[in-house]
Amino acid sequence: MDAEAPALFLGIDGGGSTCRARLCDSTGAVLAEAVGGSANVYLDFPGALARIKGCAAEALSAAGFGAGSAARVRLGLGLAGVSSPAVAAEVAAALPGHASVRVANDGVIACLGAHAGGDGGLVIAGTGSAGVALVGGREINVGGRGFVLGDDGSGARIGHEAWRRALRAHDGLAPHTPFTRGLMARFDDDPAAVIRWGLTARSADYGAEAPGCFAAAAAGDPVALAILGEAAAALADLVAALERHGARRIAMVGGGAAAIRPYLPEGVAAALSPALGDARDGALLLAAGRVAGAGSLVPGRPAP
Question: Helix 178-185 crosses helix 210-218 at what angle (to 10 degrees)?
Fold first, then answer.
């Protein structure tokens, strides 16, 4: 990196549905932002890397920097699917040419941003779900575990449960409601067509059904209300688990956080604190090396 050129800091939040980037200068002033598609490195490593690179290039271009500016960039990435230091190292190795690259799970950067780099816990209620806490230098993860085996309370789980209940109602195993009838009508009441869709549907596809469930619940649909009650209970369990691990300040973020809040147990909702910043703020803290020692952080190599 040119010693005369001041560093640029690029924070990227790569979730299961969206990749978001924020570019700042050394004073913390925001220079540009960019948005791209899914960046889950577990589900689609090559595709996620392509979207990350595209999002980074878009942010740099929007701020008036060319491709050769990468050597000035200190890159902080929080990505869905980063489950171990080995995965983080693989991501960092795939992004050469930067001044430094640091990689963590998207939950870690969201927690950093929510508490401005301080201790605290975070429940993520988005396409996926998870609980993460940073307490006394320790990184604690609860829940999550991906769509197949976890993510209780998430948008994807809400959508999955909606389709499961729609099929049960179609088969006469449970009463139909306007919500379940509406779902089945989209496939002309053909369960085989639903199953064919489900064989290739991914977590984001199921998550796309969550807004319809919230709308149906607001109209009083009993099936939608039951699904959201179960989702809220699962998220409340994450809050309780983080409290047991010593997190005193806990926030809830994600695409479904505001929508699910009215369904949370009253005491849980009242105990939540507002997030001080977002995941991109946490990614920028990561880029700046403010959290050295976090378990999933991987320092990048200096650019040649």
Answer: 150
